[in-house]
Design goal:
With 223 residues, this protein is an alpha/beta fold. It is 57% helix and 11% strand. Bound molecules: cytidine-5'-monophosphate.
Length: 223
């Protein structure tokens, strides 16, 4: 089963994707790490984020097992990732890696911006997770305060709005809800409630698939 979870920054999609993957026993890929990894590769080499050719080369050589999530966190890396993610050739260089991850035996959960629209348009379940920009900024602000690197709320809100604007207006695979994705608005939901909502949707899709795809007889190829 392939589960695509898309949505804007700080919508709760990452936390949800991890919890869904653990619950369903599926592998999980946070595709934002790929774009963050490419941005860090450019920064480490002293290259400009506008250098599309270098970014594309780094993207083509990206090794999932080498990505250090802890080193890629943070608002500055998220902003840099969003800038390089607008390059169509960088996105193209990351497609196969994401699709092979999705196609592993048993399937996978992948979260990002374009998983349901561009990377896995045939995903079994597509969720689009959102929340108001004020609520997302409040969550991000709280994380920064707890992490000991506070920023004022208005700056965080402006950052979130700028990233939303860039991610949803770029021409290459912009952030948008796939027509067959189910929307979950987490503005008033905590992580547990969002997980329950997602599992209910997944359970429903599974039940619908069951008669055709998943009965033991069908699995053995018997009619
Ligand atoms: O999800 P995260 O905040 O880590 O993503 C960082 C940036 O990477 C996003 O703002 C977005 O521009 C880009 N991204 C993307 N497509 C994805 C995942 C992330 O364009 N599938």
């Amino acid at each position: 089963m392939i589960i695509a979870i898309d949505g804007p920054a700080a919508s709760g999609k990452g936390t949800l994707a991890k919890a869904v993957a653990a619950h369903c026993g599926l592998a999980h890929l946070d595709s934002g790490l790929l774009y963050r990894g490419v941005a860090k590769g450019l920064i480490d080499r002293g290259l400009a984020l506008e250098d599309e050719a270098a970014a594309t080369e780094i993207a083509a050589q990206l090794d999932l097992s080498m990505l250090d999530a802890a080193a890629l966190r943070g608002a500055a890396m998220g902003e840099a990732a969003s800038r390089i993610a607008a390059h169509a050739s960088v996105r193209a260089a990351l497609v196969d890696l994401q699709r092979s991850f999705a196609r592993q035996p048993g399937g996978a959960v992948i979260d990002g911006r374009d998983i349901g629209t561009a990377i896995c348009p045939d995903a079994d379940v597509k969720l689009f997770i959102t929340a108001s920009s004020e609520e997302r900024a409040r969550r991000r602000w709280r994380e920064l305060v707890l992490g000991g690197a506070p920023l004022d709320y208005d700056t965080v809100l402006a950052d979130i709005r700028r990233r939303d604007e860039r991610d949803s207006t770029r021409s290459a695979s912009p952030l948008r809800q796939a027509s067959d994705a189910v929307l979950i608005d987490t503005t008033r939901l905590d992580a547990q409630a969002a997980l329950s909502a997602a599992l209910a949707i997944i359970g429903e899709k599974r039940a619908r698939r069951e008669p055709a795809d998943l009965t033991p007889r069908a699995r053995r190829g018997e009619s």
